[in-house]
Amino acid sequence: MTVNGAVSHWWSTLGGPPVRRPALDGDRDADVCIVGAGYTGLWAAFYLKQIRPSLDVVVVEREFAGFGASGRNGGWLTAALPGSRAVLAKGPTGRTGVIDFEAELRRQVDEVIAVCAESDIDADIVKGGELTVATTPAQTGRLRAAYDEDRGWQVPDDEWLDAAQASARIAIDGVRAAIWTPHCARIHPAKLIKGLARTVEQLGVSIVEDTAVTSIAPHAVHTDHGTVRAQQVLRCTEGFTAGLPGERRTWLPMNSSMIATDPIPAEVWARIGWEGREVLGDEAHVYIYAQRTADDRIAIGGRGVPYRYGSRTDNDGTTHEATVTQLAAALHRLLPATRDVPVAHAWSGVLGVPRDWSATVSYDASTGLGYSGGYVGHGVTAASLGGRTLAELVTGEDTERTRLPWVNRTVQRWEPEPLRWLGVRGLYAAYRRADQRELATGRSSAIARVADVVSRKP
C-alpha cells in the first residue's frame, strides 16, 4: 500500500519526523533572529557563526527543521540558475553578473559537499552529475537550443550525448539525445537538513520549534510563544512565505509532488543501468526530476496540481491520487522495466515562485530586515548560497557573492485572486496539452510558448 503524505519519504527513511525541539519560552534577545529552519535559514546561521562566532543566533520554526521543501525535495544539489538569465541580466551587472552567478553556484555545489564532509553530515551524496534527456523531436530541438544557449553564457563542461551515449548511462525508452553536466550531486534531503541542524547547534545556534511567527518587524519577531528582539531579522520561509502577514502575494507557493518506489531488484537495475547515480530530468514542458536513491529506489517528481487557491499550503505532504498515477505513468514511460515495481510513498511540498520567476537575496541595513528565496524549484544549492550571502550582508562583508545580480532586486508582486489561480492553472494546463500534442505528433507545440507570453513567464 502506498503511503501518502507523512511529510515525505525522506523523513520516513529516518524513522519519521524528528522529535521536536522545545518551543520559544517567552521573550528573549538575540543578535540575529532567523525565521524558518529550512536550508536557507540554517545555512544563514551556519555562515553567520563562521564569519562571527560570537553572534547570538536564534532560529524560529513553526513546525520542525526540514518540515518544508528542505525535507521534501528531489535531492538535486544542482548548479542550475534559480531564475531567468534574461531577467537577471537586466540588473546593473548585466550579462557578466549572470555568468558570475552561475559560476558561484557551481562553486557552491562543491562547498556544500565539503562542509558535509567536514561536519560529518552523511547525506548520501554522490556527485554523478545531471542528465537531461529528450524523447521526442520537439524536446530534442529545445534541448539543443538549451545546449547552445549554455555555450553562449560560458557554462563549462556540458556534454551533448546522442541516443546511444545517453542510453549507456540510463536506458531511457525512446531517448533521442541528452545533456550531461558534472555540476550536480544526488543527496538525501532529510539527512542533509537534519545534519545541518545538528551542526549549527554545535556552533551555538539556538533552534526553537513548534513556534508560530505572527508578525515580523524591524528588530522584532513576534510569535505565539513570545517575542525575539534582535538587531537583524532574516525571513527564510520560501514556499510558506505567503502565510505571513502582508506576504500573500510576495511569492507564489507552487506545489510539487513526488513518488518513491519500493527498492528495485538487481535484475531490473541491470536493465536500467544508472550506475553513475546521475540525477535525471527531461525536456518536457511539465518536466520530471528523479534520482536513484542510496537504497536502490527511484524517487521521481513533477508539478501535479501546481497551485491552491489563495496561496494555501498543505499540512502533511498529502498529494492527489491523480498526481500519483501521473508520476507512475511518467516513470513507466521512461523506464518500462519499472512497471511491476510498487510505489511505496507519495508526497508533496511547496516552493517559492516570484512574479518574474527569479530568486532574490535582500538585506536593508537601516531596518535590519533581510530575506532570501523564490528559488523556483532549484533551491538546494541556491538556498545554501542565499543563506551564505545573507550572512555576508548582515556582517558587512564585501564579497563576490554580495555583488551578484540577485542581491537587493525589486520584484513585482503577484496578481490578486482569482487572477493568480486562473493564471497558474491555465499555464500548466497549457503545458500538459503541449506535451500531449508533442508526444502524439513529434512536432513542437506553440501552445506552451503562447502560455508563457500570456502569463508573462520569462
UniProtKB/TrEMBL annotation:
Q: Which Gene3D superfamilies match?
A: D-Amino Acid Oxidase, subunit A, domain 2 (3.30.9.10), FAD/NAD(P)-binding domain (3.50.50.60)
Please provide, in alphabetical order, the Gene Ontology terms of the cellular component aspect for this entry.
cytoplasm
Q: Name one Pfam family in it.
A: DAO
Database matches in SUPFAM superfamilies:
FAD/NAD(P)-binding domain
Superkingdom, taxonomy of origin: Bacteria
List, for all copies, the residue spans of the domain called FAD dependent oxidoreductase.
31-393
PANTHER family named in the record: FAD DEPENDENT OXIDOREDUCTASE DOMAIN-CONTAINING PROTEIN, SARCOSINE DEHYDROGENASE-RELATED
Q: What is this protein called?
A: Glycine/D-amino acid oxidase-like deaminating enzyme
Fetch the InterPro entries from UniProt: FAD-dep_OxRdtase, FAD/NAD-bd_sf
Q: Which organism is it from?
A: Allobranchiibius huperziae
